[in-house]
Recover the amino acids of this structure.
């Protein structure tokens, strides 16, 4: 089968052996897969001497073969893949054996994947194949950040720097669905316009003076994933007593911040990563209930995987990028 692999320091689209489903596993024929920033980071973790690993964490496909003992799926079922491995119930932290699909296991940028039957969910019926292909890391991370950790309520205001990001577009949609006010930033005028079109109430330039721009706003919740480039400025616009939820650090992991201002402000800082199957299912129900369709930027064929990853790396996207596979 054809797959996108990272092997000995190189990204290759090549033929690899088709996996066989073991007991408890299902072989899924993948139609399309969603890209995530993780697909850019995994090669860095693997280094130049690694054996071939198939990248990719999200996908939609069709059940093609059942391993021994699998009774909850049948051949021909349309499914999506939950990339949050072995984390079933909602909890403060994932279980010890939690991992995200595609490192160390092979991922979804391939014609087939053999994966535990527990990691599949029915394809949401209101979505096209390409839309369903991105129901994975981004909406799950956003859902847990916004609802489980952020506890957003109707009438509250959430501030999201980096409007174009895959997770941010879901955050904008989900926050609007529950009646929150949404303020975003982006470096790109085009992305600011696009954010307003999908429901953001205010979109400001990332390089503007946020405190001045937002002096009449009361921000209850900040959802941060840009990292060093914005963290302190985000904290400075949060209302006293407000919450900040962090799930990423695109620009740099290490940030200095003023502890005295932090405790005087009575702020609460949460970290979060991905989410449980319980939250994944709640997220899918939320998207169905509000007839929410993911924002797709562009699709590339599997042969164009390198171009697609470069496009993501350069932050051209507004929303999600899809690899079409079969
Ligand atoms: N912990 C988890 O489970 C988890 C899950 C998903 C993602 N993440 C992490 O969260 C981050 C966001 O993920 P994503 O997939 O949504 O990201 P993405 O689609 O790659 O978007 C990154 C965004 O960051 C903004 N940005 C980049 N460089 C910037 C700079 N120098 N100054 C200001 N803004 C900048 C861009 O906003 P504009 O172009 O609009 O300005 C861009 O839209 C990544 O670091 C990712 O690894 C973590």
């Amino acid at each position: 089968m054809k797959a996108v692999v990272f092997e000995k320091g190189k990204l290759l689209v090549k033929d690899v052996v088709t996996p066989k489903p073991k007991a408890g596993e299902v072989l899924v024929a993948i139609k399309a897969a969603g890209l995530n920033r993780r697909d850019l980071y995994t090669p860095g973790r693997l280094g130049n001497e690694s054996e071939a690993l198939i990248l990719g964490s999200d996908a939609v496909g069709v059940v093609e073969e059942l391993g021994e003992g699998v009774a909850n799926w049948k051949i021909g079922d349309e499914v999506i893949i939950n990339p949050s491995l072995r984390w079933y119930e909602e909890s403060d932290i994932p279980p010890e054996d939690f991992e995200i699909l595609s490192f160390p296991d092979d991922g979804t940028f391939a014609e087939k994947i053999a994966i535990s039957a527990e990691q599949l969910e029915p394809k949401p019926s209101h979505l096209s194949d390409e839309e369903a292909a991105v129901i994975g890391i981004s909406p799950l991370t956003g859902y847990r950040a916004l609802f489980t950790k952020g506890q957003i309520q109707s009438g509250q205001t959430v501030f999201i720097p980096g409007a174009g990001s895959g997770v941010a577009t879901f955050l904008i949609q989900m926050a609007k669905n529950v009646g929150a006010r949404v303020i975003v930033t982006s470096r790109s005028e085009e992305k600011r316009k696009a954010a307003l079109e999908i429901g953001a109430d205010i979109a400001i330039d990332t390089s503007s003076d946020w405190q001045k721009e937002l002096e009449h706003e009361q921000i209850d919740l900040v959802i941060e994933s840009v990292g060093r480039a914005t963290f302190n400025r985000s904290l400075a616009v949060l209302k006293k007593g407000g919450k900040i939820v962090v799930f990423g650090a695109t620009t740099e992991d290490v940030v200095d911040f003023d502890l005295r201002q932090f405790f005087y402000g009575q702020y609460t800082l949460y970290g979060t990563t991905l989410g449980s199957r319980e939250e994944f299912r709640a997220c899918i129900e939320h998207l169905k209930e509000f007839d929410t369709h993911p924002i797709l930027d562009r699709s590339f064929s599997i042969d164009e995987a390198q171009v697609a990853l470069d496009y993501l790396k350069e932050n051209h996207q507004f929303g999600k990028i899809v690899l079409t596979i079969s």
Observations:
- The mean pLDDT is 97.
